[in-house]
Amino acid sequence: MHSSFACGAFGPFCGLIAVLMSPLPARCDEAPAVKVSFRNDVMAVLSKAGCNAGQCHGNANGKAGFKLSLRGEDPEWDYNTLTRDMFGRRANPEDPGQSLILLKPTTQMAHEGGQRFKTDSEEYKFLFEWITKGMPNDSQNAPTPERLEVSPTDEILFEPKNEIQLHARVVFSDGSSRDATRMAVYETANGLVNVTHDGLVQRQNSGETTVLVRYLHLQAPVRLAFVPARSGFVWKNPPANNDIDERIFAKLRALRINMSDLCTDSEFIRRAYLDLLGILPSAEEARAFVNDEVAAADVRGLILQNPKSEIRNPKLASASLRRRLQRRARLIDQLLERPEFADFWALKWSDILRNEEKVLDRKGIQLYHDWIRQSLSEHKPVDRFVRELLSARGSTYLNPPANYYRANRDAVTRAEATAQLFLGARLQCAKCHNHPFEGRRVQPPPIQGAPEQSARWTRYS
User: Fold this and answer.
1) Count of domains observed in the chain
2) 21-30, pLDDT tens digit by residue?
3) Range of the domain at 93
4) Same domain for 152 and 205
5) I need a surface site. Which of 29, 56, 314, 412 has the fewest CB within 10 A?
6) DSSP 226
């Protein structure tokens, strides 16, 4: 009775409420009902379309009044921007098809960035479904991407093979995984290849290149080489002098490229002097090396048709080559003992370690330079050199390597310099945003707000 009375008295209102609460009619362009994650799907779409790139809305100042975090490094910022900014016009759950984030990328409305995807694309369907469901944000317990698996990772392709398909798979924190080939971003290191939207790498020119595959904050490099067939290739199997030679020879053999011919003695002495001493050999030094008695004996022991022909006697050739390499090794040892070597490389290390008047005083510069030069002159091992540099304490006059901390006075600059000099890693980008190539991410608090551990200076008389 009570229920009937309520409906009877408020019948018109009940009817209105029923109409308002009834589901909207389905649109013909709606995607199938799927659970769309904002962080794992919507953010991936923004990255794939290039919306959050540095030259677009990921710019520090945004673009056309719309700013996203660079490469999607701040999903919370992007969620608020998409759902709250511009009075909610960018994403309209009442009429998803009229949302700006769908109209502009598909050029249904003027867009300076041009068409980023089509209305029948997977990107459009993800965004449309997310908006239709009320633009939900992910819960704290939602799975997050933890690992990106890409195949192949290293491949050499010989003509006539001119393309290769990359496959990407993302593994989440809950152990689940899914194919990410279409939603991954593909960035090439040079113009040797073109990569399609779906990860098909197509050769443009011969050579070696790297394709960086990225899905949200995860990334993986793929090394590819497109080379001529060289069907008649035969490896000459040159002798390796050290581990570096072995690695280089393995790479050359895989690429079907034989090592270049040994340079002449006159070429070698010129290169050795320039590389080690920064000067050219004198005419007398060059003649003495080229006309060495051992070299003359080498020539007499070989039977050559012409300077570029093969040696008829392999045993003589092998012995001659061995003597020739030994003579060159002796020259290198001699050059390492010359004062010009320490002078030349002390100048290089002084540049690397910022031994300059911009950060040090004149006396400190001289003492720092003398310590570097002395270390090179006595052939101090690199690990010992670095250990003395990084562990230096006290007066920069009495203990010159302590100038490293005077040249890099704050903790951030010191960390950047040390990582770049001795680890080959750049941290500068990660001060403000996630590193675009090396997988380093800004963690709260950001490095520029972290407590400083600056050195304290005491004046010594």
Assistant:
1) 4
2) 444 433 434 4
3) 41-133
4) yes
5) 314
6) E
